């Protein structure tokens, strides 16, 4: 199982097993930092609304699904 670490001081960065993971996704980084800092579970609707507050319900769900897929492609199936 991969070990992930999130650095939030200064420019945020994600490391997997000590190696820097160049994300290139601002919303993806925001999502990972938010999830790392949050205690407990977070619903998809709450996350989607936080990232895209002006979008329709269908639009933000689609965007979140795409973002999660891109994060999975970048970081692997462990995420």
TrEMBL record:
InterPro entries: AfsR-DnrI-RedD_regulator (IPR051677), WH-like_DNA-bd_sf (IPR036388). This is SARP family transcriptional regulator. It comes from Rhizobium leguminosarum. The lineage of its organism: Bacteria, Pseudomonadati, Pseudomonadota, Alphaproteobacteria, Hyphomicrobiales.
């Amino acid at each position: 199982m991969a070990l992930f670490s999130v650095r939030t001081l200064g420019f945020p960065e994600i490391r997997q097993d000590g190696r820097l993971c160049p994300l290139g996704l601002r919303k993806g980084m925001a999502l990972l930092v938010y999830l790392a800092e949050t205690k407990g579970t977070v619903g998809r609707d709450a996350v989607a609304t936080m990232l895209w507050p002006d979008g329709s319900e269908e639009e933000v769900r689609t965007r979140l699904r795409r973002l999660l897929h891109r994060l999975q492609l970048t970081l692997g199936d462990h995420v």
